[in-house]
Amino acid sequence: MCGVPAPCSEINGKVATNAGVQSMYQTRKEDMSVERTPVAFGDLRGWIAALKAQGELQEINAEVDWNLELGTVMRLAQGPGTGKAMLFNNIKGYNTQGTRCRRIFGSSLNSYRRIAMMMGLPPDTHPRELVKIGRTILSGSVPPKIVATGPVKENIVTGKDIDLYELPVPFWNRLDGGRYLLTYGGCVTKDPETGVMNVGVYRGMVAARDQIPILMWRAQHIGHHFTAWQNGGEVEMPIAVAMGWEPALAFTGGSPVPKGMCEYDVIGAIRADMTGADGAQEGDPTRAAQAIRRTLEEPDAPLRLALGEEAVRNLTATYERNLEDVRRWTAVSESADFPGGRSSARAFSNSRE
After folding, report:
1. pTM for the structure as a whole
2. 3-state DSSP call for residue 238?
3. CA dihedral over 46, 48, 210, 241, signed as positive or negative
4. Which residues of 103-130 are buried (b: 16+ CB within 10 A; e: fewer)?
5. pLDDT digit string (tens) for 269-281?
C-alpha cells in the first residue's frame, strides 16, 4: 500500500527507463499475440516505472486527507474498471521532511490492462485470453533463491521503536472499524510439519502502535498452519507480511493456489525468476518496500491480542450505525409503500439486536 522507495528500479537485471519499458510493451494490433513474455519487475519501483511508461499511472500531488478522502478518491477514480493506478505524493499529516513514509500507491491490479502487464502480456490483451492463461498460470513452479539479505533490511525498527501510526495508513471506508494497513500485502506463514510456506492476502487493521488484527478462517491455508502450530503445543505462529513488492506476490496471494504448493514457487513461474526470500528470517521478499514480522495469536489465547480502546470505539460506532440503518430500512419496509417484505424485515432486525 505504502512505502514507495527511491525512483530507481531494475527489470531483468537492467535499469528500467521509460523508453525501455515502453518498447517492451508497445505492440501493434496486427502483431498481437497471447504468448507470454514473463517479466521480473524487480520490486515495486520497477512496477511503478512500467506503469508510468505505459500511461497506466496517475500521480496526485495535491494534499489528500488519509481520513476517508483518499479512499473515496481512489474508489471513484476507478470508474467501471478503467481508471489508472494511483500514487498519492502528498498525504495530510505525513508530508513533512522527517516522516517515515510519505506516499501511498494503490489500484495496482484493478484493470485488465495492468493484469495483462503483470502476466507479461500486451496491455490490450482481451479479457478472455487473460482468463485462459489465469487458469494455468498458477500451476507453474520456480523455487526461490535463498539469499542472506536485501534492500528490505536497510531500515529495521524493533521493540518500543515500532509505531504503525508513523505510516500514512488510510481510513478507507466510512464503515471500517479503523485504519487498515494490510489491504493487498502478502501474509507469509509456514507449515511447521512440512516446511511449506503460504502467502495469502488478509485485511489487517492498525489496533495499536504495534498490533494488527486480521480475520483468519480455519478453512484457509493460514488457518491450517495455525492449527498445525497449536497441535504442536504452540500458542503463537510466526508470520511475516510483505508490502510494496512487485504485483505477482499479491496476485498469487489472492489466488487459489493448491494446498501444499508454495506461493513463492508460483510467483517464480509468473516472473520466470525468483530472487530470493531472506534465509535468516524466512518469508521476507528481499526487495519488498516493507516487511512486518510478528507472531499471530487467537484472541482467546493466553497471550491475548487486544484491539485497543480506539479500535473498540470505532467498531462499536460502526455497529451502531449499521443497526440504525437496519431500523430505518425496517420502518420503510413495514410501510404501505413497500409490500411483501414486512416479516423478513422484522426477523432481520430482531436478529441484529
Report:
1. 0.72
2. strand
3. negative
4. bbbbbbbbbbbbbbbbbbbbbebeeebb
5. 898 865 554 443 4
